[in-house]
Amino acid sequence: MHALCIHSWFIQLAELPELHQMMRQTCRDYAQKELAPIAAQLDKDHRFPAKQVQELGAMGVMAVEVPESLGGAGMDYLAYCLAVEELSRGCASTGVIVSVNNSLYLGPILKFGTEEQKKQWITPFTTGEKVGCFALSEPGNGSDAGAASTLAQREGDEWVLNGTKAWITNCWDASATVVFATTDKSLKHKGISAFLVPMPHPGLSLGKKEDKLGIRASSTANIILEDCRIPLGNMLGERGMGFKIAMQTLDSGRLGIAAQALGIAQAALDCAADYAHKRTAFGAPIGKLQAIQFKLADMALATESARLLTWRAAMLRDAKKPFTKEAAMAKLAASEAATFVSHQAIQVLGGMGYVTDMPAERHYRDARITEIYEGTSEIQRLVIANNILKEYQQ
Amino acid sequence: MHRSSEVKHLASDFNTRACECFGQPPVQPFESHCPVLTDRTVRVQLKVLKVKDGSVFFIRVKPDRTGVVTDGVKHSMNPFCEIAVEEAVKLKEKKLVKEVVAVSCGPQQVQETIRTALAMGADRGIHVEVSGKDYETLGPLQVSKIFAALAKKEQADLIILGKQAIDDDCNQTGQMTAALLDWPQGTFASEVTLEADKLKVVREIDGGLETIKINLPAVVTADLRLNTPRYATLPNIMKAKKKKITNVKPADLGVDVSSRLEVLKVDEPPQRQSGVKVETVHDLVEKLKEAGRI
């Protein structure tokens, strides 16, 4: 039995099941035809791809793991990672919009929500009509998530939220958010709880849209809560469970970001390899030069290695096995691969890599954030190290 | 793709109209037709063809000059067949059609194409197994014979095909199928409307648009502007896995797939010659006159 499991995993790593291949091809076709041609303009205009998000919703991509009974596609996490990678290959901003909605917004509600909450907060967000966001970071703490200073006070039959959340992806286009606030600062991370807040809502306002280096078609801003009142029924999970919810959500979310990073890396590799065929120098296409060949080999190796780590972590999660260490490894490898590959892609393109005529510069700008959000590379290293030390504990 | 070739007619037993169409040897497309469902409502038979992907650039002629290299070349559903599948699924969504059956003729690989049609909304698939040498010589005549046989077997009311395959551009299968069944045909359709038991078809012709009304059962071939094919949704891709694909052999349908045509040779187009640059319009006119063009 055990041997059979390992065997089927290896087969899956070598070749995806037919269902996943079809799904991947559909997303790839969509990204090639509908996203890649507009990605540069979306980036230039900082424009949310509302039409494309709706089309992706109709395809089921905005709620891949959500069961069909709630309006989702009812597929597994591996399918979701494949979808995000293929979409990000066309447009990295669209990739993160899809990822945040799936992993960071729908994810925790699916896992920790009551049946009532699921109907109210999940079903309308599966069609692409509405997207959600995830409000954990604050101006005073990102990696130090346990030090949340947004307060939640109970007043009668309402919770009253006060504080500021920072770096919230999707917030200018979202219709709801999962907010983390503390009911008792002295309890540190054990005092944090999760709340569901509709948007717009009295007491909730948005800061100015950040002018980012990359993923510019997705909106990022502060969420400011000033006496924001929500019913008691809007608490997600139990009181004090917030930190646990956040950490578990991010464990899965980082696979979505790993997939996004893979898409960016692949797009940069596509660009560089294509250029190597066409550009001639010293009398031949530059793909004949070993200097370029070594770069392409290293780029492909970095991408493929990270991809296998990502698939494996997704498969472990689908098999309901522990996957925290593997997910951290996948995100770390994929994000560093994305920055490496896009950097080298510009090098292969030379001067052409530095101008907006070619997409290489956009991939370089888009890649950079993947090493930062949903757990910085440094945090990923801490997660991996902690897991390893636990394995070796006497 | 254009190839110059000489085609020798061997014995032929079909009407001269079909013979005249042969300008190019049929390069093997994976053709599939989807049978249409009928009962008192319409049964749609779709033809789903797997052809060399339209975005593939490097097509090479085989060393023995009998065709082009297909190994390792990316294949996908013929774009006109995608449009045919979409039209059939739309008819079913309007509840004008009871069942949509996707058919493809070819080797094992065409099952992938049938699954794509299923993921778009077809109800079941039929894979007509043709492989090896038979597959290399499979052309519109044999395919239309297979379709005619299937249409009778499945009691289809409507056969929808792509107007032509993008690798051989034959544009014959629909017409031949209609002739073999003695059914009316609405080819190059840019609009199809079901009115009771008649079909109103708007056809794109050289002179503009022609609207005809034909009785069912009928054959329709889809042209570019008939619709925009949908992307398969994830739930439909999952459902497609459970839908049935039956295998049949041409012999089971009483069809002989041997070819009446022999490809004598396939050549690449001549290398493009470089042009001549001229300074003024006057020079251009002179040059054109010299070359006898004007």
TrEMBL record, chain A:
Keywords: FAD, Flavoprotein, Oxidoreductase, Transit peptide. Residues 240-388 form the Acyl-CoA dehydrogenase/oxidase C-terminal domain. GO terms for biological process: butyrate catabolic process; fatty acid beta-oxidation using acyl-CoA dehydrogenase. Pathway: Lipid metabolism; mitochondrial fatty acid beta-oxidation. Its cofactor is FAD. One of its GO terms (molecular function) is flavin adenine dinucleotide binding. GO terms for cellular component: mitochondrion. The keyword Transmembrane does not apply. It is an enzyme of class 1 (oxidoreductase). Its EC number is 1.3.8.1. It comes from the Eukaryota. Residues 133-228 form the Acyl-CoA oxidase/dehydrogenase middle domain. It holds the Pfam family Acyl-CoA_dh_N. InterPro entries: Acyl-CoA_DH_CS (IPR006089), Acyl-CoA_Oxase/DH_mid-dom (IPR006091), Acyl-CoA_Oxase/DH_mid-dom_sf (IPR046373), AcylCo_DH-like_C (IPR036250), AcylCo_DH/oxidase_C (IPR009075), AcylCoA_DH/ox_N (IPR013786), AcylCoA_DH/ox_N_sf (IPR037069), AcylCoA_DH/oxidase_NM_dom_sf (IPR009100). It catalyses: pentanoyl-CoA + oxidized [electron-transfer flavoprotein] + H(+) = (2E)-pentenoyl-CoA + reduced [electron-transfer flavoprotein]; hexanoyl-CoA + oxidized [electron-transfer flavoprotein] + H(+) = (2E)-hexenoyl-CoA + reduced [electron-transfer flavoprotein]; butanoyl-CoA + oxidized [electron-transfer flavoprotein] + H(+) = (2E)-butenoyl-CoA + reduced [electron-transfer flavoprotein]. The keyword Flavoprotein applies. Residues 18-129 form the Acyl-CoA dehydrogenase/oxidase N-terminal domain. Short-chain specific acyl-CoA dehydrogenase is one of the acyl-CoA dehydrogenases that catalyze the first step of mitochondrial fatty acid beta-oxidation, an aerobic process breaking down fatty acids into acetyl-CoA and allowing the production of energy from fats. Belongs to the acyl-CoA dehydrogenase family. This is Short-chain specific acyl-CoA dehydrogenase, mitochondrial. It comes from Cyprinus carpio (Common carp).
UniProtKB/TrEMBL annotation, chain B:
GO terms for molecular function: electron transfer activity. It is found in: Mitochondrion matrix. Residues 65-257 form the Electron transfer flavoprotein alpha/beta-subunit N-terminal domain. Keywords: Electron transport, Mitochondrion, Transport. One of its GO terms (biological process) is fatty acid beta-oxidation using acyl-CoA dehydrogenase. SMART domains: ETF. GO terms for cellular component: electron transfer flavoprotein complex; mitochondrial matrix. Heterodimer composed of ETFA and ETFB. Identified in a complex that contains ETFA, ETFB and ETFRF1. Interacts with ACADM. Heterodimeric electron transfer flavoprotein that accepts electrons from several mitochondrial dehydrogenases, including acyl-CoA dehydrogenases, glutaryl-CoA and sarcosine dehydrogenase. It transfers the electrons to the main mitochondrial respiratory chain via ETF-ubiquinone oxidoreductase. Required for normal mitochondrial fatty acid oxidation and normal amino acid metabolism. ETFB binds an AMP molecule that probably has a purely structural role. The electron transfer flavoprotein serves as a specific electron acceptor for several dehydrogenases, including five acyl-CoA dehydrogenases, glutaryl-CoA and sarcosine dehydrogenase. It transfers the electrons to the main mitochondrial respiratory chain via ETF-ubiquinone oxidoreductase (ETF dehydrogenase). Belongs to the ETF beta-subunit/FixA family. This is Electron transfer flavoprotein subunit beta.
